[in-house]
Amino acid sequence: MNRSLAIKLGMIALLILLLMIPLLMINGVIDERQELRDGVLQDIARSSSNSQQLVGPLLVVPYRRDVRVWNTNEKTGVRFQETVEQRGELYFLPEQFELDGQVRTETRARGIYEARLFHADNRIDGRFKVPENYGVASKDLSSYHFDEPYLSVGISDIRGIENALALTLNQKTIDILPGSRVGWLGQGVHVPLPMVTGQGSADLTFGFDLRLQGTGELQILPVGKSSKVHLAADWPHPSFIGSYLPVSRDINEQGFNADWQTSFFSTNLEEALQNCLPSDNCEEFRSRAFGVSFIDPVDQYLKSDRAIKYALLFIALTFAGFFLFEVLKSLAVHPIQYALVGVALAFFYLLLLSLSEHIGFALAYLASASACVVLIGFYVCHVLRSVSHGLGFSAGLAALYALLYGLLSAEDYALLMGSLLLFGLLGAFMVLTRKLDWYGVGAKPAAAMTFDLGEVK
Fold first, then answer.
1. Does 43 map to a domain?
2. pLDDT digit string, tens, across residues 388-437
3. I want to staple 368 with a disulfide (CB 3.0 to 4.6 A). Which of 116, 158, 282, 351 is the partner?
4. What predicted TM-score, i.e. pTM, was given to this entire model?
């Protein structure tokens, strides 16, 4: 191969590597803007309410128990027995738990950033089956002293409660009080149950309405031996999260409907609850929750980050097109001209990021791609000294941008589409150069390979 051709290829490769510097800087800007957006969303959530997790209701029975323990007199060393009072709680999960939620979403803006809030109108119904003497064996019953039982509901951020709460228990209305009274349950509400004595088995049918505001995610812990949850919302892009997927769902442009159904056989909540009580480490218990996320699944920052991952391929293909014109049309393109086109391609990603924050990703992509195609097309018409060649190059570049948008939109098929694109471009390059004498290209006179456009006749 002629030395000048080797130098030209080496300079093109060096330019591609140098253009990675501004691309890395733009990628850093994407990360910074995303962190800034996340910080603003967290501020909005702190000012309103965070993601919500609903746990309960649980029936809690506080007790005091007389226990005889051995102790040692420090002075005499004599061991003796004494009676001490041990405090604790008995927990009961409902036999049935049903939740019907109607969710409305809204956006709150701060500057150019928006957070999506939800308002869930929930109807919660269920039934407890209280065993006689709260399940304590008759032989141990004399050592137990039961205090007033209560229902406890854990709500991860009580600032989101939007209505006055009242519980219907066996057709009687009881006011719900603030505070869950259960440390490991966190924030929430509770309902005293002085009428429940445990002297006989009883069925407690309950129901209450809970209007709950939150940001990002709504999760529900299916506490019943049999649990049914129905959620309907006006958000058309739900992301179902947690340990259980809906048994049925319907998603359309107006929103979604989803139904969950679980039982103790699938959740094993009773065992998880008993395991968490001694240490108050109840993450395993809480991990059985499921729900939905109202966050945009793919925002402009994620799409911009995906787009810039194809920047190296874009630049390499554009430079390959330039080089193809050189060898097929005996034209000379200076490395500075390669560099200017490469910088224009890099600016596409900066334009895409800045515009997408204001007009949305699709319109920003169209505007940025159109601006780059027009600018590069105008420049290439003069570089190649042919309007037809410049328009053809612009058409190819526009097709590349269209294919890139297809890759970004079809994430599941991105690998397939990218592989077919590269294979097709390789085939086109091989077909166009099938009769080219590469040794002849290297042997051309220096004037034909010069980088000075003034010498090209």
1. no
2. 777 877 888 888 888 777 777 665 566 666 677 667 767 776 776 666 66
3. 351
4. 0.68
Verify that 31 and 140 share a domain, yes or no. Answer: no
Q: Are both 79 and 103 inside the same structural domain?
A: yes
Q: What is the pLDDT of residues 65-82, one digit of tens each?
A: 777 767 777 777 777 666
Residues above pLDDT 70, as percent of the chain? 83
Residue range of the domain that includes 58: 51-293
Q: 232-237: long-range contacts (C-beta < 8 A, 24 or more apart)?
A: 232/101, 232/102, 232/103, 232/256, 232/257, 232/258, 233/102, 233/103, 233/104, 233/105, 233/118, 233/292, 233/294, 234/103, 234/104, 234/105, 235/103, 235/105, 235/116, 235/118, 235/292, 235/294, 237/296, 237/297
